[in-house]
Each structure stands twice: as C-alpha cells, then as structure tokens.
C-alpha cells in the first residue's frame, strides 16, 4: 500500500472576510435559506464591505461558501428603535455604522442548508465575540428570527412559543442556537421583518455582554488568555457489526465534547482494533494489516467529525501500511479540516512480536488554533527525551493515547506522564481503553484510568491531577487548562526544572531531518 496523502482527506475550512467575489454564491445561499424573502442586492453587499469590512465574515468549506454573518457598530441607547431592523441596519446598507460606538449589532447570519448540523453558526458567533473583544465593544445585540413559529402559530402566541423554546420543549433552528451561544433574551419584537412568513414577522431581541469590556479604554487591548478545554475519552472495547457501528460510537463522544464546547477530544491508542471483531479472525500479523485497510474510512470519518462538531480530535491511533511497512500512527484532525500525524517512535516487545510494527523517527509539534501541541503514543511517554524535544518546540499540551492490558502497564504510563509534567512544565492528557475484545489476539484485555495531569506546584491541582476517570468504566472527563499558567510557572515556579538543567554536565542530542540538534 502506498503512503496515503493526507491532503486527499482534508476539508479546507476557513473563516474569513466576505468579498464581492462571494456575491453570487451569497445570493444563492440566501435564496436557499430564506426562499420567501428578497435577497441582498450587489449594492447592499458592496456598501457593507466598504463601510465595515471586519464585520462581514463567512465560512468557506472546500472553496464553497457555507455560512455568513453581517454586522455593524452602533452607540448603545436604551431608547433606540432596536425593534426596527430597517432603521438599525440602514435598510441593510449600514451607512450608519459608527466606528466609535460601543455595540456590535448583527443584522444577519445564515448557514447553507447543505452544511447545517455542522455548528457553523457557533463559529460565526465566536468570530463576532472575538471581534467584540478585539474592538473593546461592550455587547452584541441581535434581532433573531423564530422561523419555527409558523408551525405553531395556530395554537399559541409568539410569547408562548418562545417560552417553550427556552424550556427546551420546542426546538427553533435560530433561537435555540442563539441561546446555546450565550445570548440572553431581552424581548419580543413584532413586525420586525413583515416578509418573514416563517417567523410570522416576529423576532427576538437578544444580547451578549462582553465581560472583558473596559470603559474608556483604547480600542485595542490585550485580554486574558482564554482557557483550553480538553475532553478525554475512556473508551470501552466491544464487538461491532461493521464500521458504521464503530462510527456511531465515536460520534457520540465527539458530539458530547462539542456540546461542552471542548477545544480538543482525545481517543485511546488502537481503539480501532474494535473493528477486528467484524472481520474474519486471522493471525495477529495478518489482522493488523486487515485493520490497516480501514484507514481511508477512518480518516474520512474523523475529518468530517472535526469540522462538523467544531472540535480538534486526536483520533487515538491506527495501523497504517506505508510502502509495505506497518506503522502505528496517531492522527490530529483539526476543526478547520486539516490533518497531521505522529508515528509511534518506540515499539513495545509485544507489538514487534505479534504485529510486526515498525517505529517512526520524529517528534512532531502541531500548530492548532489553541497553540502548539504534541502527541506521543503510549510507550513513547516513558522516554523523557521525547517530551524534552516537544517542549523545546514550544508544545504546552502533550496528548497520550495509550492501550494497556494490566494495572502495572497503566501505572507506567501514569507515573511517567506525571514526571514529564514536572520536568517540562507541560500538561499531559492520557486516554485509554477499557473492556474486553474476546478472540482478538493481543487486544483482548484492557485496563485504563484516563486523566489530565499538571505540574506539581501550588498554583496547580493538589495532587497534580486536574481530572481523572474512575478506572475501567466507559466515560469522559472534561477540564480547562491554562497554558499561560505554564509559562509563568516555568519562569517563577517554586522549582524551575527546565531552567535549572545542568547542561554543563549533560544534554539531549537528537537527529531530525538528517541534522543533529541539541536541547
């Protein structure tokens, strides 16, 4: 099997400014989203882009326009006619945009029906919130449609419908998403857009407050680094009928992690061996190569899930054949649709004996939207030099998919991960399998207690354990970590292992890309 080109599996997902080149696609999308409403004219979009380019944003997936959002800045006035979309938006031309104002007003957001269910509205709302923080605006105000109301207008008032949506008794495709993204309902607006038949002309008046806002401050300022939310899966191995059943189980965890607005979700090493339960039994070496045949489906699945659920996924690890050689590879599936991979570098005796796995030869550090991270597969965390290399390359979080069959094997992972945190001032998240796979040789028993570990100092968790699962049950832990805290700890902690290395006595030298490097 030839080496798979990861670019063949990537989804190129980009959040960017809207341009006039997008006009035709934008109108086509608007007609699909709002078939009963008159679409934007070219003059509208040109005026919006010329007046406030930063406020006109879109999501592009594989070169296709998938979603968009438009906004302007106004000065907040409680007596302003917030109920009047035409007045507040200048009939969509936004020539009343006030760069010195304090409130971002959203005039439209839409997601192409082809791309719904992929949490693209969350990406747009997050982009608006970031714009609000960067410009030091006090709030975002939107007049939100309630397009599900026409289905219930004969049996309840608009106010009663909104109450049901807030109580989660009813689902509205717009209001439910807005409430989930932190907006608070401030009122009901009749005759907001009379042409909006789906909403019966009604809209909601919603507000999001910028807690970082500073009155009388300069427009741009440095705000506190946001925490990074990690979701760690402790996955139960069980027999499956086919790949689709495996995919359903994986998507459950990814969906939960996304609902908690996690930035990363990590799966265990070789949890894909579960797929060997749905193929004819064979000797371990042959079985490993059978498992590698699922790699294209695996890559397609997790790439789609990362984009759809707006979360970076460390996809455990999977057997891959490259130029007739078997590797154990952990893949990073970024939520922008791009991929990275880390070969397992140290191969255990049982992997060599039973499966014939070959080692990789490079420690990768990956750029993500949450900073630099590293992935080390199971046994690799037991070699301190590898985390030294990752830390030298500025990785703040090390993800460790592991797969152990006994408590002793797990404890080697656990104790070494804790040590790596102390030595290098990093967080380490370890994710393992539990449960049994009868008749799958060398992958029949599993023991795990997945966890997130921290350096051991006063500002971190008492036992240097930020969060951990109960052992040997299927579950997930979710916890926030602060990489800025790592930087401060490295510089001014009670002990500063990284700074206090005796490089006059010893050093780590490694070879990468045919060059010798020193830490």
TrEMBL record:
Record-linked SUPFAM superfamilies: Acyl-CoA N-acyltransferases (Nat), Carbon-nitrogen hydrolase
Keyword DNA repair: no
Top-level taxon of origin: Bacteria
Location of the N-acetyltransferase domain: 13-212
Domain (CN hydrolase): residue spans on this chain: 228-483
The UniProt record lists the keyword Transmembrane helix: no
Keywords: Hydrolase
Cited Pfam families: Acetyltransf_1, CN_hydrolase
Molecular-function GO terms, alphabetical: acyltransferase activity, transferring groups other than amino-acyl groups; hydrolase activity
Entry protein name: Carbon-nitrogen hydrolase
Species assigned in the record: Blastopirellula marina
């Amino acid at each position: 099997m030839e080496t798979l080109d990861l670019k063949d599996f990537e989804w190129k997902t980009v959040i960017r400014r809207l341009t006039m080149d997008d006009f035709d696609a934008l109108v086509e999308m608007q007609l699909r989203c709002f078939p009963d409403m008159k679409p934007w004219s070219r003059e509208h979009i040109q005026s919006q882009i010329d007046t406030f380019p930063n406020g006109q944003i879109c999501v592009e997936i594989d070169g296709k326009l998938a979603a968009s959002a438009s906004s302007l800045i106004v000065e907040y006035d409680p007596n302003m006619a917030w109920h009047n979309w035409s007045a507040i938006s200048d009939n969509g031309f936004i020539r009343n945009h006030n760069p010195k104002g304090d409130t971002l007003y959203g005039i439209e957001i839409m997601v192409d029906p082809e791309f719904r269910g992929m949490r693209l509205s969350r990406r747009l709302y997050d982009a608006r919130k970031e714009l609000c923080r960067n410009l030091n605006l006090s709030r975002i105000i939107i007049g939100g449609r309630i397009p599900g109301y026409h289905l219930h207008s004969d049996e309840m008032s608009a106010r009663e419908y909104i109450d049901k949506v807030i109580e989660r008794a009813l689902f509205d495709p717009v209001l439910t998403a807005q409430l989930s993204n932190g907006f608070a309902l401030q009122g009901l607006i009749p005759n907001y857009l009379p042409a909006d038949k789906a909403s019966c002309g009604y809209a909601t008046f919603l507000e999001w407050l910028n807690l970082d806002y500073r009155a009388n401050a300069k427009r741009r300022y440095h705000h506190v680094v946001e925490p990074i939310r990690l979701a760690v899966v402790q996955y139960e191995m069980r027999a499956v009928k086919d790949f689709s059943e495996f995919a359903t189980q994986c998507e459950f965890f990814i969906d939960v992690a996304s609902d908690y607005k996690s930035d990363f979700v990590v799966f265990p090493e070789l949890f894909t061996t579960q797929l060997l339960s749905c193929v004819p039994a064979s000797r371990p070496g042959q079985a490993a190569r059978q498992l590698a045949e699922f790699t294209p489906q695996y890559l397609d699945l997790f790439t789609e899930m990362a984009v759809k659920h707006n979360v970076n996924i460390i996809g455990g690890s999977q057997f891959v054949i490259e130029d007739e050689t078997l590797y154990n590879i952990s893949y990073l599936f970024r939520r922008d649709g791009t991929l990275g991979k880390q070969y397992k570098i140290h191969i255990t005796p049982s992997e060599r004996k039973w499966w014939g796995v070959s080692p990789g030869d490079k420690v990768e550090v990956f750029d993500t939207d949450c900073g630099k991270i590293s992935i080390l597969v199971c046994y690799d965390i037991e070699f301190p030099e590898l985390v030294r290399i990752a830390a030298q390359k500025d990785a703040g979080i090390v993800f460790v998919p592991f797969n152990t069959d006994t408590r002793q094997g797990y404890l080697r992972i656990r104790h070494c991960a804790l040590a790596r945190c102390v030595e290098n001032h990093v967080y380490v998240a370890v994710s393992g399998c539990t449960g049994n796979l009868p008749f799958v040789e060398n992958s029949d028993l599993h023991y795990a207690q997945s966890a997130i570990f921290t350096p051991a100092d006063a500002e971190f968790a008492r036992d240097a354990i930020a969060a951990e699962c109960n052992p040997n049950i299927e579950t997930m832990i979710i916890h926030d970590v602060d990489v800025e805290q790592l930087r401060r700890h490295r510089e001014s902690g009670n002990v500063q292992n990284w700074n206090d290395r005796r490089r006059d006595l010893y050093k780590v030298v490694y070879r990468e890309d045919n060059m010798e490097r020193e830490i």
